[in-house]
Each structure stands twice: as C-alpha cells, then as structure tokens.
Fold these 4 entries.
Entry 1:
Amino acid sequence: MSKHYALLFTSALSCAAFAQESTTRPILSQRNHPGALRQAPPGRMVKVEIPHSECLTEAGYAELLDRIALNREQYGIPTISDATRGAQPFFIWPTRPRADFTDYGYYTNNNFVDHNPLVNGNLLDWNCGTRTYDWASGNHMGTDIILWPYAWRRMAEEVMEVVAAAPGTIVDKRDGYFDLQCANNGQPTWNGMVIEHADGSTAIYMHFKNGGITTKGIGETVVEGEYLGLAGSSGSSNWPHLHFEVHDNTNAYIDPFAGPCNSFNGTTTWWQQQQNYKEPNINHISTHYTSSEFYQCGVQEITYEQSNFMPGDSLIMRCYYRDLDNNALTNLVIRDAQSNVVASWDFYSPWLFGATTWAWWYYLIDNSWTTGNYTFEATFDGETFMRPFTVGMPIGMEEIATLDFSVAPNPANESVRIAGLPSHRALLRVIDATGRVVLSEQTNGITHDLGLAELSEGVYQLQVEADGGVGTRRIIVAR
C-alpha cells in the first residue's frame, strides 16, 4: 500500500533491513549564530531502524554448495588443491558509483556479520557493537551495502555498480529473478554470483538487479575491480543493496573486517584498506517544496525536490546522513549571492548512533526574502556540502550554470523533444509560473521525449540538471 506522509518515513530491508516504521522527532538541540538575519528554523529528524529478518539461511548456503559442485563438473572447473593453492585475497571495496555520478555519497553500511552465535537479538559485530541482526533461526553473516538515499530511484538509475573485490573464477551465477522484492521470507531467488579466489575462498555477491549482470559465464575469470552487476532487490530483500559474504577454503565463515570481536579471523583483515567502523558523511543535501514523503516499496521515490522558490512557498532543507553519531555537530548556513550569511545555526544529533538518518528544516518564503541566488550549506565532519537555490527568479531565468540543449517544437502540443543533453542521466523538471514543479522525469539518453499532455496551456520553465550544472528553457504549451 502506498502512503503520503509528512513525518513518518516507512521502509524495510532484509539482508539490509529497515524497520517498518522509523523514528522521528522534532529537532531541539540547535543554536542560532549571532549576526544571522534569520532565527534558526524548526526541523525534524528521522532515524531508520534495523529489524531482524531472514537472509541467506544455512539450508540456502548448503544448496549453493551443491550448485557449485555441479557447476565444477559441468564447466570443468578444477578444485583448488594444496599444491596449487594461492595466497589469501585482500579485497577492494565491492561497489562503486556509476561513472557520471556526482553526488556526495550513494551508500551506507547498514549491517555487518553477527559474531554472537545465539539468535533472537543476541548481536555482536566485529567491533563489539550491534550493527548487525539475526532472526529466530539464524544469524546475518555478510556485509550489507545499501543505496541511500532514494534507493529505488537510484536502483533504476543504476547508481551502484558491483565489482569484483578480488580476482577469481566465477563458480556460480544467477540472473532472471524479479528484482523489486518486498518480502523477508528467506526466498533463494536472488540474482548474483559467487567468485572463487586463488586460495579456495569464495565471495558471494547477492541481490543484483535483473539483467544487469556481467556477460561472463560460470568458469570464466574476473580481475580485481571488474564489473559484475548492479545493486537490486532480488531474493530475500526489500531494499536495493549488495549482500557481500565471504567463506574460506573450508567453507567456514570469514568477516573481512578485522576487529576485537571478530570470532572468525580475529585481527587479520581481508581488506586492502579497511574502512573505519563509522564513516560520517552527508550523502545528499537538497531543497524541497514540501515536507511530505512518498514511499512505496519497489517504486521510485517522489522526491519533491525543487531549486526555485516563490513568495508563499515552503523551503524545506534536508541532509541525508551516513553514520551520524550522538551529539555530532552540523553547522547549517544559508548564503545569498554575495556570500552574506542570511541564516546560520548548529544541529547536534540527539540519537546514540544512526547508520541511515536524515534531518530537515523549514522556512516560509515571504516578501522579506530578496530575489536572487542562495546556497544552503552544511558543514559536517570537516567537509562542507552545498545546494544552490533561488528565490523569486522569473520564468526563463537561468540558475547555477548554462547547459546547451535544444527543445522542439516550441510552442508544443502533446510533447517536446529535448536533444543535445550533456549526459545520459539528466533530471528534467517543468516549473509553472508560480515556481512549482509540475512534472519531473529522469532521462536515459542524450535525447528525450517529454510528454506534456497533462499540462494546461501556458508558459513554463524547463529545467535540466546534469553533471553538476543546471540550465533552463522557456517552453510554451499551446493547443
């Protein structure tokens, strides 16, 4: 069932699992800076919880081993002997962003391996924390790397690419399964592959997007960093992500993260460069015209993002965090076109820890806001993140940067063709005379046909955002 809601972000994830209902609260712990023209705005914070849910079961892993044995026989894949055994692999990170991705971040690590063999909430990760989960009959035994934010939209945009963490041989490959799963029942219908390394250890890559997998087949080899597939939500999953699971040459579990509570390989890391337990970041900073969220599992998110505001509009400012710790400081600033500080305030996170969280603040745009360009800035963990926006800019006036593209016919009736786009991945917005976004689409090529049948006759602004730039064209709908 789909929902419209303003303060409750409902989502769930298995193998990287979100709670059915997240926690939200007003932001109280913030301080306005002296000299700012405006007082600190009210805001809210949402923390996405992690429930227990079934992932790859012991029975599922046993079935996988049987498949690999059959594949060895069918494809002539030799078993690695002691005489031919190579050295233990050291992994690079198994995901990367699409080559033209320009945002600040695209994932969080929501779950690690559970080192406590007991179930029903007895949790222990490699660093002696509880960033993991179990269920009634099993433990989570991999690392979950989830798309964040806008997971379903970014899955469709193919933002997260899965790559070989180490060289090896493909000993199992699965594709063709439904990749918009919203069920946590342990089903084995996952797309992905298993890579065997020179020492006989294996890495399992699960939950790929259907049809996005490499053309290489079982028995062929891959090199470190080679493209394997795209993050999806196939199998036991209801959030696009990669489940990365490692076993040694005896099929015993390995946790590639070395740490004081790693009960498998202890202080021996399997990473070339091990990430810190916490990697604070703002993955995305944005401005919106409403506080509402539209979320439905398996459906691309409606983001309500907007960069042009008119008097009477709500200005919603958001930060989507990775690994936000208790009392972590974010300094928020709004600057005008001359870099003067219009508003500045501090936000301190009230929660103990959140791997996947977001916060938002709001102003009402009234006549005290002068027409012009502004920038919403967030300084967090030593880095500044920025989002430009405008107030009161008339239709047809360009923002941020000029992109060269054509629009025809213009005036238009039912559709226009936009040609010469700078990227295969561009965001299109049609804005009416009041500054409101009335149509939004993502392109898949340098030419895109935009339907206008639902729009009334009138003058609109077509805004194209790609490769860090924004360009606008005036379009006329006439019938």
Entry 2:
Amino acid sequence: MFCNFRTELKVRLLILFFISLLSTTPKVLYSQWNAQNVTFEFYGDTINLEIDHSVFVDFTSSLSNQSVKAFYQTINESNYQSLIHSLIIYKESHQLNDWFYYQLIRKTAQQISSKSDNYHRYTLYKWFLLTKSGYDATLAIGNNQLLFYVKSDDNIYDIPFYTKAGKQYVCLNYHDYGKIDFEKNKIYEVEILIPEAIKSFSYKVNQLPNFRADSYSEKDIQFNYHETSYHFKVKLNPQVENIFANYPIVDFESYFNIPLSKETYSSLIPALKKNLETMNQKDGVDYLMHFTRYAFLFENDQDNFGKEKRLSPEQTLLYDHSDCDDRAALFFYLVKEIYNLPMIALMYPTHVTIAVQFNKPIGKPIIYKGHKYSICDPTPQLQDFKLGQLSPDIRKNSFQVVYEYNPNFK
C-alpha cells in the first residue's frame, strides 16, 4: 500500500509540474510543437528555417490602410523573432550585401506566402521581414496596387522614389507592375510606426555569393590581337542573370565596383595575367582594351533588353551582346585588377568610355584635376582606334567625368 501511494504521489507531482510548465512558458512550447521547417536553395547554399506557425498570417481582405494595419498587428504579435534572428545571422556570417539580403528575404517570403497565390500577402511579408531586420521600409497603396519602398541614400535612376523628411525612399517592387502612371493613379503611404526600422538600404555590391563549383559552366571566349588568336575557357554562373534581373541603374561608382565571383575570377584573371607577362604596361592595357572590344558582339540595350540596362562585368562575360557602358565597366575592372592604374569614366551624349593615367600620356590627353589621362575606348567602332584615340564623331561633343578612380585614395 505504501509503495503504491508513493508511486501515485510521484505521478501527481509530475502532472502538476507539466501543468505548471505549460502555464509559465507557453511561447517556448508553442514554438517547439507548432513550427514548420522550410528548406530552399539560395545561390548554391541550402537554407533551413524553422518558422513558428503563428507567423503564417492570412490576408484575404481588400487592400486598404485598415487591412494592412490589421495584418501588421497580427503578425507583430506572432513568434517571428527567431526567424528574423536566423536571417540576420546568415546575413552576417556570409557577409551579404543589402541587395543579396533582400534576395534572401524574397525567397523566404515566397516559402511563407507564394507570390503567385497572393501577391499582396507576399509583398507584406517581404516588407515585414525587411523592417524587422532593421531597415526603414514603407508601403503605399493606390488602385489596388501595393508598392514597397525602402530608404536609400544611393543614387538610383530608373525606378520610382519619393522623399519624406529629407529622406529618399525607392520602390523595390515596381518591376512587378511594369509601368504606373503616378499622375492618374495616386498612391498613399500606409503609416505604421516600427521603431527598430531605421537603417538605410544600400545597392552597393562588393561581393558575389559563393556559388557551388558544379553550378558553373564554361564559355569559350576568343579574340584576335596582333594576328594572334587568344582563347579562354571562362567559368560562368547562369544565376548571375537572376541576381541582377531587377537590379536598378546605380551611379557609376557603385556600378564599376561590382566584382566577379571567385570561380569566374580564377578562370579569367590568371590567364590574362599570363598573356601579359611579356608586355609592358601600355601594351598590356592595349591588349585588355582589344579583348573587351572584340571578344563580345555589340548591341545596344534597347535592342537587347528593350530598356536601358547596365551589365556588371560578369554579366558582360555571360551574355553574347553588350554595349558601351557594359564594356567600360568590364575594361575598368580588368585594368584595376591587373594594373591598378588611376582612371576616369567619361560620359558623352551617346557614349561611355574610359581614360587611363599612364606615366606619359598617349595621344591628345584628357586633363582632369591637373592630371593627364589617355582615352582607351573598349567599344568597337567603324575603325580600330588605338590608345589615345576616339571616334571624331564622339570626341567633338562635350563630356562629363562620371567616376574617378585613384588607387591612392580609396
């Protein structure tokens, strides 16, 4: 009898303990017992996230200030913190630029709420995840359209923006709507105060993701220089096209400093350096100018993409066609990586080109801030212009120096 009583007492105490635990730590247990594991690929990496079920909030109401605020109030009371923490930890450990962190948020939002199933809900999730990551982002409504803006100090040229209290907010999802007549379709900001959302978003890209080696393919690139044919097998990743699909036109400083991925770099730059070993500096720059000029076919952006688009150096290598600013960016990158010479980017009314500072200028120099720069045009023209030469039809026009690179003042 005594043993049975002690056993029964232990059982009752255990029951009371678990009841107490349930009453004091409901959120922890809810997170453990009511979470959904989400797995997706992110530029060669596999992302595993545990998302609490309370984060899955429906949005079927008509689009309005009230419905958006109601969605925010509900999801803001959910157990979202561990999800944000996981995203930020990944961002920091992989040193993601803001643009790539936004791609991670897009893919996460897609897992929670598919873009094709409910575009408004998908956009709300992107906005929520970005703001809870500390970025100052806003929403605006007009004509059943939900526009998603983020504060940015960068110069952006081809997407809508508005200013508030001296701050610039640029639209992150304008491409989803194609074209909006903001005169006919007025938009109104949904005012929701999120104290932690204070950071500016930067479009600067100084590092590409570490793609898996097996996700690359080889492209044969060849050109002729002084009656010699040069061939390269360059490793390129098709995911680069998706990365920059909706990347806006940024200023030339940001644009010219987008690097190559590691695999592409290692398949091209050492090979170029080897070919340049026996050349002096000017001949080497001339070689790089001709490589950029003739290894790719020319086509203007309007014919190629239907709009103005600036390709990063890796995109120029990836695509078969490119225009003058694409080649200027690639040529700038090659000269910077191999010779690290001072350079300026010149923008004429219909042309962009590069001028390089040598110890002694070649041809008629461009004088800028007291220094002499020699034009090195990496775009094919009607004739094969040499170092220091530029088509007379272009040179007769005025130009603007849109970027200056000085390796001594980074």
Entry 3:
Amino acid sequence: MDVKTELRKSWIIMIKEFKQILRKKAFMIPLFLFPIVMIIFFGYGMGGTVKNVDILVINDDTGTASSSLVQEIGSFIPKYGDVKMFSIIYTKDMGQSEAERKIDAGLYKAVLIIPQDYSERMARNESVTLTLLTDSSDTTSSGIIINFMKQLFAGTSNSLVSLNIPDIYGKLQYIDFLTPAIIALTVFIGTIQTMGYAIAGERQDGTLVRIMMTPVSRGAVILGKTLHQLILQLARAMVLIIGAIVILGVKMNGSWLLVALVLIIFTFGAVGLGIAISAVSEDMISFQAISMLVAFPSMFATGVFYPLSSVPDWMRWIAYIVPLTYANDAMRTIMVKGQGLAFIANDLIILLFFAVFYFGLGVYLFRREA
C-alpha cells in the first residue's frame, strides 16, 4: 500500500467534506452559534432563586412595628445577589378570599396579611399570627418565599411572630410544577422534530419529490401532515399526563378538555414552525442544527424547570416571544390551579396568534421551496 497516495486521497476526501458543509449555509450559523447559546442559557437559565418578586402586603395595622417589618422584607437582598428579592405592593381592607383570587389570577407570588393589632401585640410582647398565602403552583418561588419568612420570624426581634400558611392548591411537590411544562415542552420539540423528518427527511431521500409528482396538491400534503401531528401529539400528551398521575402521583385539578384545547392550538404553531425550518433546510443535518438552536434553549428561557422570576431580565424578554412560555403558564393554570377558561384566555389568545403566524409562515415557505 502506498501510504503517500492514501494520505493524498484522504486529504481530497477531507476537502470534499468541508466544501459540502460550507455549501450548507443554513447549517454553518448554528454549527458555531449553538455551543455559545447553550452556555449562556445553561448558565443563566438554571437559576433556583427569585428576585423582584411581587408580594402583596395587606396591612391593617397603623403602628410602627408593621411598617418596620414591611421595610425589612422589601429591602432584603440575598447574600450573593445585588437585587432585592421582593417588590412590595401595599393595600388594606382586603379579605383572604379576595387575596387568593389575586394569586389565582397570577398577579402576585405571595400575599402577607398583617392583622390590625400587630404593633400592639408586639409592644406588649404577645404572640401574633400572620397569614402568608403563596402561589404554590410555582413550588420553587413558593418554597423560597416561605423559607425566607420563616427565617425572618425566627430571629430574636420577631420571635413572637408565627405564620399561618394555608395550602391554596393542596400539598404540591416540585413534580406538580414540572409536569405541565414538560408535557408542553415534549409537544413543542416532538412536533418540530417529527415535522423535520416528514419534510426535510423526505426531501432528502426523494420521497417528497415523488409525492409532488402525483395529483396530490401541496395543500393536501400540509393538511395531512398537520392532522397527523395533532392526533399524535394529543395522544402523546394524554399518555404522559395519565402516566404522571398514576406513577408519580401528580395532581390533575382542572379540565381535560381545556388541556386538549391548549395543546391543539399550541401544536398548530409548532407544526408551522417545523414546516418553516424544514423549508429552509437543505437536508436533515441542517434541519437538526437549526431546530436544536430554536427548540433546546427554549427549555431554559420559558420557565420549564424554574420560574421566570429566577432568570435575568434579558432572558425574560426572550421568553415573552416564545410560545412555549404561554403554553407552560396555561397548562399549569389548568392542571395545578384547576382554573377555567377565563384564567387562560390571555395565554390562548397569544398562542393562537403564534399558531396563525407560524403556520402561515410555514405554508408560505413550503409552497415556495417545495
């Protein structure tokens, strides 16, 4: 064997491979950008702390002790942080039931109710009980807030204070917070990936070209693939929910029909996004690179594992333009809080907008590129 000849052939093959990659313009950007994006989103998205969390303080006390307490809570900055943990909103003459409705609506992560005789009791060194309501559907934020309050009132100056912490939604675990978002994430990534195999993959192996040569219209192709995804992802989500309930003991407090409605609208948008990515991808390698650049970082910017309050402000703005954020919120509102259509109306409107936009974009690009 002539080693020199073999090395020269290997060199030619290597140059050929580089030329092929360089011709795939859609592949080049995510090839180098994806690792940077993942470092950023892993580094900042896996938080586990909270900051500037909106807390409503219902203070019916007119003394100085309650004012000092609220000031102490509002000025607290974590040891290794530089931002206040809480953003205090004041009110009075509000009952517990109305306060719970504020939490149901997602306006506040917690409500602290200070009784009107708080300052008097503290002055007389008598015990006093405060009521702390938390949005326990967000188990991370709720746990951090409760731990902070317990430590605060365990101090020497506040040792007479005890906390009453009702379970608004029952006893919840982190798995109850995580499961609805994991289901939405599974539908999102699963739909995009399977649409890639259905379009970019079929274009690569020639199946799509052969289909287009038949009397079947492009519209029929898109409709058939969309219906397939709707049925597949809806069935997949139902299996995941039932499995989580039976195996993990996850609570399902809301309507199955509302869950189905959210997932149908959400899947339409994911189908459109999958079609759009497929249409601009030369082959499956390019599709995988672009889709991972779009889908995978979404896990860390949309509150799947941790609440949005734990991520930097710039990442939160990214979350607002990603449909997965609103699907997560709607799924948790239904499954954990057990709320109805009125409480997810805003999420549904935004998801519907994304669905129309992405589906329209996907159809346009498919008709142009196919």
Entry 4:
Amino acid sequence: MLELRPNCECCDKDLPPESREAMICTFECTFCVECATDVLAGTCPNCGGELVRRPVRPLGKLEKYPASTKRVLKAEGCAPKAA
C-alpha cells in the first residue's frame, strides 16, 4: 500500500493525497512535478529510479487507508541533475 507522503522532499510543497502533481519512485520518495521535472530531470536523487505520477487513492479507500502524515525533507534540498 502506498504511503501517499504529504510533501515534496525538495521544496516541502504540500502534496495532499488527491494531488495529481505528486511524483514518486519505486521507494515512494515523493516530489512535486516542478522539482521532479525542472530540478531532477525525472530521476530520483535518492535511488536513481524513474519518477512517475503518484496514483490518487479513491476517497472511500482513503478513509479506510489514510495517507501518511510523516513529512520527509532533504535538509540540503535537491541539487539539479548533472547533464
């Protein structure tokens, strides 16, 4: 079950469970679409995996299986991916 983390690890932007702007890797590292595309070039800075849009959990399931409230933030921010 996906955690549906509540924020971007780079810029700390809020990413509520219904957000279509959340991007994740296979380890659920979570980034906003702006950081994922403009800063990270679609690659997770933690594992090197591909960042894809996080699915939205249906409301009925969200009530039974709530999203995480634990915020994860890279203290140093995210450096742009080297070309």
